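Example for tutorial group B:
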């Protein structure tokens, strides 16, 4: 296509792609999921990309555009170098700490939205729980999984109302899907219900830009309650290691 025939956004896309490849010296690729978010169901053709980048190979490791990760990354490394924002998590955990909740519950609050800040919003409670499952007490990952559903249902016994924020975000007519309602019913009768409920109680919806909480305040709680693998997250052969590797190397060709 000639330059003249390209729209501005096509030119911007091409420039971005060019810069991306130069930075890496290797060809970084976008997985299908990244395109779905732009409303496109398509896959970048490997041979086309090779033809456009003579002499280059596909990226099979770290993407140099992203903050460099250590060889044996810890949860804290992911917090600092891969999580797009941690203010909400830190504020929730601080709230739980001030309320005198158990370390397990504080950890659950600290990690409850890591699915959102590192990966994907949709079903984030499930993704987040799965990521940390091999490294925490079962009660912590269970609570994070269940906060996905519980946040839509009030519990007056602990002063939790349906969040006003959700009316603003989803409209007054939004109702959770049947699978969420089913999950809520299961969680409601579970022995760890209150742990998951405490995540919703300490989930601060109105982000306060002045309340600064440092991750260091939770180093000890993480140390005592998150079983950091000596090989580094991703290199330790658990059912979620591949997920940590994908966060580390999101543009790896295969
Ligand atoms: Fe959440
Ligand atoms: Fe949250």
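The residue assignment follows.
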């Amino acid at each position: 296509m000639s330059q003249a025939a390209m729209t501005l956004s096509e030119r911007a896309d091409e420039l971005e792609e060019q810069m991306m490849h130069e930075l890496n010296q290797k060809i970084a690729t976008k997985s299908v999921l990244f395109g779905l978010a732009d409303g496109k169901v398509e896959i970048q053709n490997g041979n086309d990309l090779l033809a456009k980048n003579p002499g280059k190979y596909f990226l099979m490791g770290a993407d140099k555009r992203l903050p460099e990760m250590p060889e044996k990354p810890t949860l804290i490394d992911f917090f600092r170098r891969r999580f797009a924002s941690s203010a909400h998590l830190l504020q929730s955990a601080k709230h739980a700490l001030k309320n005198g909740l158990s370390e397990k519950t504080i950890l659950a609050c600290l990690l409850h939205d890591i699915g959102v800040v590192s990966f994907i919003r949709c079903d984030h409670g499930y993704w987040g729980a799965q990521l940390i499952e091999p490294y925490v007490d079962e009660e912590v990952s269970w609570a994070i999984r269940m906060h996905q559903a519980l946040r839509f249902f009030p519990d007056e016994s602990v002063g939790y109302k349906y969040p006003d924020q959700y009316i603003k975000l989803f409209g007054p007519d939004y109702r959770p899907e049947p699978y969420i309602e089913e999950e809520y019913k299961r969680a409601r009768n579970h022995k760890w219900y209150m742990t998951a409920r405490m995540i919703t109680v300490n989930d601060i919806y109105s982000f306060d830009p002045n309340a600064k909480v440092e991750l260091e305040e939770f180093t000890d709680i993480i140390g005592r309650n998150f079983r950091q693998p000596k090989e580094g997250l991703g290199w330790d052969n658990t059912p979620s290691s591949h997920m940590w590797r994908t966060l580390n190397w999101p543009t790896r060709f295969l």
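The pocket of fe (ii) ion (ligand 2) is lined by residues 88, 112-113, 203 (CB under 6 Å). Compare this with the pattern of hydrophobic and polar residues in the output above.
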